[in-house]
Write a sequence for this structure.
């Protein structure tokens, strides 16, 4: 059998473009054409019926070490998660940043994933934004997610939709899991065009994006989704009582048995954000996002250590971002006032609508602005696929993964930003911003940017 050589070819309205945060793509393979069609709400994928991967769905005997985990610890809400420490964001010794990083840092780093050290559970939830017509893709994903992970851990689900879920949808989902499931509607206040957006200009922009063939360029609901995922989901009433979330989308795949609790792992290791795939964005979706991010950083006088992974002062944003259709992260990271200010500033520009800013970019740049590298985790042991991008390393005949047969590992393929992540120094590179337009790199090199002088935002 011929293995697929996948050319990452995005065809849209006759144009070929590379990259995209949230995508639509057609993969050309030697054996078949797997077209992915996309809902504008959940950019999910409806795979062909002959699609892949049932080979990975064999049940394994439940691992006895998790039996304790199935009992909800009564004091789980007392496990206060780490907060973003503003103190901790400005101190990296600059000597370490000039040290050449090992190429394989993310694969050689020793991580203790033995979360059985405590039987504590995290105060966590699985969050899924989905539409009624995505039920089949959702069922497939949920079957895998349950088998690979949640049947042992019983974390609750919250399903969100911009309209009511049908009874059929709700009944079908409840067949898939014994965990608690809640279905909610996104309030209109989180899914509407704000008053300060000029709708004439917006409609012209949508038409222009559409005419240029930019992925989801003409879609208003896609923009609502990106704005909701950037600035609102963590305020949804059904998520109010939780500290951590795992974002799952209909159509994604999970390839490895997970025999530890990634939420407890995040909590015990002070991780606030995580990813499985990092890649480059379509530039046309974000013409002014970097400039606005710079304005914000200067106005706030931010001191950063991770932002340099995403940009430098001469060339600006390198388009790298963590792909947010997979996220295990702290809800309090986004509830934090500093992130809220960043979102509100971005939102005030109207460019979630005039341009087509993706939540993956906003989240990623926020990690750059507010976190250290050590607070972000690459889950290399969570085999994952969305559209035609897969993260899964063959762990051998004694391993726990069955990687997709139709999609190669994207980790070190062209367009992946995992090499950028690996190469970025563990202690970060300091890059500080001052309201007077100064930028201070590595604590001693100062450049002046008069275009970013600000009194306030
Ligand atoms: C990175 O990992 C690969 C595969 O494990 C290995 O062959 C290579 O030597 C490693 N490179 C470095 C710099 O450690
Ligand atoms: C995990 O930690 C527990 C408690 O210390 C220990 O009994 C168990 O052997 C450890 N498991 C592994 C795989 O190291
Ligand atoms: C959605 O469900 C709510 C609560 O059951 C109900 O009050 C409302 O009328 C429903 N909306 C629509 C459009 O059916
Ligand atoms: C950044 O560092 C400078 C110099 O140490 C300090 O005055 C400023 O308050 C810091 N900015 C923030 C947002 O913490």
């Amino acid at each position: 059998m011929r293995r697929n050589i996948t050319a990452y070819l995005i065809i849209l309205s006759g144009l070929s473009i590379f990259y995209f945060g949230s995508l639509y793509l057609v993969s050309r393979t030697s054996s078949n054409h797997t077209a992915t069609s996309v809902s504008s709400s959940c950019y999910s994928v409806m795979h062909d019926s002959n699609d892949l991967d049932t080979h990975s769905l064999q049940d394994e005997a439940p691992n006895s070490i998790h039996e304790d985990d199935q009992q909800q610890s009564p004091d789980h809400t007392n496990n206060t998660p780490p907060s973003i420490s503003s103190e901790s964001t400005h101190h990296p010794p600059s000597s370490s940043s000039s040290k050449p990083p090992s190429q394989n840092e993310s694969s050689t780093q020793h991580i203790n994933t033995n979360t059985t050290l405590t039987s504590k559970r995290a105060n966590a939830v699985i969050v899924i934004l989905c539409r009624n017509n995505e039920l089949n893709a959702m069922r497939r994903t949920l079957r895998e997610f349950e088998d690979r992970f949640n049947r042992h851990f019983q974390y609750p689900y919250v399903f969100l939709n911009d309209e009511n879920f049908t009874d059929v949808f709700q009944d079908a989902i409840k067949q898939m899991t014994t965990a608690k499931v809640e279905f909610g509607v996104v309030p209109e206040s989180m899914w509407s065009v704000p008053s300060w957006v000029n709708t004439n200009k917006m409609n012209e922009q949508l038409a222009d994006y559409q005419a240029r063939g930019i992925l989801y360029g003409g879609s208003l609901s896609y923009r609502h989704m990106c704005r909701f995922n950037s600035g609102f989901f963590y305020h949804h009433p059904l998520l109010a009582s939780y500290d951590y979330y795992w974002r799952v989308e209909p159509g994604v795949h999970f390839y490895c048995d997970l025999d530890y609790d990634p939420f407890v792992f995040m909590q015990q290791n002070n991780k606030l954000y995580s990813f499985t795939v990092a890649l480059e964005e379509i530039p046309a979706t974000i013409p002014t996002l970097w400039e606005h991010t710079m304005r914000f950083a200067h106005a706030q006088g931010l001191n950063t250590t991770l932002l340099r992974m995403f940009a430098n002062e001469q060339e600006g944003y390198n388009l790298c971002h963590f792909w947010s259709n997979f996220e295990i992260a702290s809800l309090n990271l986004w509830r934090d006032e500093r992130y809220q200010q960043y979102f509100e500033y971005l939102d005030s520009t109207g460019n979630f609508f005039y341009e087509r800013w993706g939540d993956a970019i906003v989240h990623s740049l926020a990690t750059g602005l507010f976190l250290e590298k050590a607070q972000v985790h690459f889950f290399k042991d969570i085999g994952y696929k969305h559209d035609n991008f897969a993260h899964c390393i063959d762990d051998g005949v004694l391993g726990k993964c069955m990687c997709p047969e139709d999609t190669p590992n994207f980790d070190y393929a062209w367009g992946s930003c995992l090499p950028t992540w690996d190469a970025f120094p563990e202690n970060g590179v300091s890059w500080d911003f001052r309201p007077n337009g100064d930028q201070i790199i590595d604590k001693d090199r100062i450049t002046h940017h008069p275009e970013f002088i600000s009194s306030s935002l």
Notes: The pocket of 2-acetamido-2-deoxy-beta-D-glucopyranose (ligand 3) is lined by residues 164 (CB under 6 Å). DSSP finds 13 helices and 22 strands in the chain. Confidence is low (pLDDT under 50) at residues 1-108.
